[in-house]
Design a protein that fits this description.
Number of helices: 6
Number of strands: 0
Strand content: under 5%
Length: 157
């Protein structure tokens, strides 16, 4: 079960990143280009939020129930804080992802309440942009000491 969820979490991250970047780019174009807010803008924000929600649920299942790294970290949390690998997985990764989730949902709710297309685009650009930066910051890129492969297919092949 661990390898399947880890693989799904790894693959879904790219859907999340692509949707988030497209949403931000479209919002920036709408904001600075003074374009009308369309149903497509709303749907793109919804799909981005839903993908982050699903990714978060998969990650939470890994974090709480399945990850050997978080299990090890929670056995001696004090010692885990002095171990960069365990600290990253037990604290840093989830912190940035929860922050991204909150920013994205605040941006979506805020854009729904905003009056006028420019205001809607601006709010999505700012909040989704910050969320996207948090996501990109928290991805365990392969070149980092705690990095992981860009695509993990262990559970599906």
């Amino acid at each position: 079960m661990y390898s399947i969820l880890l693989t799904l979490h790894s693959l879904l991250r790219w859907i999340v990143v692509i949707l988030a970047v497209v949403t931000v780019m479209r919002a920036l174009a709408g904001w600075f280009g003074k374009k009308q807010w369309t149903a497509m803008d709303g749907r793109l924000g919804m799909f981005s939020s839903v993908s982050v929600d699903l990714q978060f649920l998969l990650g939470l299942a890994l974090y709480i129930f399945l990850s050997p790294l978080t299990k090890q970290a929670f056995q001696d949390f004090g010692a885990a804080m002095s171990n960069g690998l365990l600290r990253y997985w037990a604290v840093e990764h989830i912190f940035w992802m929860v922050l991204a989730l909150i920013l994205m949902h605040v941006g979506r709710a805020s854009s729904k309440r905003a009056e006028g297309s420019t205001s809607k685009h601006r709010r999505v650009a700012i909040f989704f942009g910050l969320a996207t930066l948090a996501i990109l910051f928290a991805i365990p890129w392969p070149f980092l000491s705690y990095g992981r492969p860009l695509i993990r297919l262990a559970g599906l092949v």
